[in-house]
């Protein structure tokens, strides 16, 4: 059993958007920004190899298909995920499962790649052709019929080939992927976001996704303006944090360019980072 983090690249997000109603005087002490108010965000992937023969990839960054359209985000240090996997002795064909926390472009863009078609029309192929792609049904329906606030974050080309190849697997509720990986659903940021819980011998790791994207977002009221349903986000963060503090689970922060993983503790009514875990 093995768990590794792979950063597939970085981009800039507006600090005001990342921290919503929190004033810059407060958030900039906990997360730096540049002169344009840009905060560097990572796009983090988790690679889990289980004793029962699964090789699982959780999220996979923005990929390359839409970088021009998304140039506002100033992407940099993009890694080729296939190369990163090969460095670790794993071929893309060996990936058995791709878990997509949700379908915003910065989490699922690498799932498909452009392929050369004989008639030069655009076509897409799967980056992980043998993998089952796990998505929640509510997220999938939101992707196909997006609300006005999320529609610019979704690109059909990222997922169409997955469905057409019969590799999409939709879940309706919390679901066990295998004995050591549980997929649990959290709302608020977007409907039916999956948070994978990975049980390792030393502790359980929670891929917190955009429920808690940064260590600076551990305070429940530090909610991003990208969250579609902020009051629900607040409640869902407390649900995740309460258990993480009690059970000594470690949170993996998918977007934090500085702190990749930590445990959390509850101090009176507040939640704080406890120990940073170097993965
Ligand atoms: Zn998102």
Describe this protein's structure.
With 279 residues, the chain is α/β, with parallel strands linked by helices. 19% of the residues lie in helices and 31% in strands. The chain contains seven helices and 15 strands. The chain has helices spanning 15-19, 24-30, 81-87, 105-108, 137-144, 160-164, 230-247, and strands at residues 2-14, 38-49, 55-58, 97-99, 112-115, 123-126, 132-136, 168-171, 175-178, 181-186, 193-199, 204-207, 250-252, 261-267, 270-276. The strands form three sheets. Strands 9-10-11-12-13-14-15 form a seven-stranded mixed beta sheet. A hairpin with a 5-residue loop joins strand 2 (38-49) and strand 3. It is globular. The two termini are 14 Å apart. The mean pLDDT is 96. Zinc ion (ZN) is lined by residues 102, 104, 189-190, 210. Zinc ion binds next to loops.
Brief summary of the model shown:
The chain has 279 residues and is an alpha/beta fold. The chain has seven helices and 15 strands. A seven-stranded mixed beta sheet has the order 9-10-11-12-13-14-15.
